[in-house]
Design brief:
Layout: E1 2-8, E2 12-19, E3 23-30, H1 36-51, E4 58-65, H2 67-75, H3 82-94
Parallel strand pairs: 1-4
Antiparallel strand pairs: 1-2, 2-3
């Protein structure tokens, strides 16, 4: 089984590939703000190359992004107080 998980961050896009629950492949590529999919494709292509497997072998693809979360906290005037961050985390657990 080939599984891929990605996290699109403000600076880097991280890609992890798990092959048959035994082999782990990692890639970190620059995030491409003008076209986020471009950075995702680069990272996925890199881990597939490392794994020696084609894209058609992927059985699970998990996506996450920290861009929106980071933007929320960065845009808060003077930074976000600890209480606000904790409330946000607790809210996300319920969603």
């Amino acid at each position: 089984m080939l599984e891929i998980a990605i996290d699109i961050g403000g600076t880097f896009t991280d890609v992890v590939c798990l092959y048959d629950q035994q082999r782990l492949f990692l890639a970190k590529v620059p995030t491409t703000p003008h076209d986020l999919v471009h950075g995702v494709r680069q990272g996925v292509a890199r881990v597939l190359q490392l794994a020696g497997r084609p894209a058609t072998a992927v059985e699970r693809f998990i996506h996450s992004t920290t861009i929106a979360t980071n933007a929320y906290f960065v845009s808060t005037v003077g930074g976000a107080p600890r209480e606000v961050i904790q409330q946000y985390i607790e809210h996300q657990k319920r969603v």
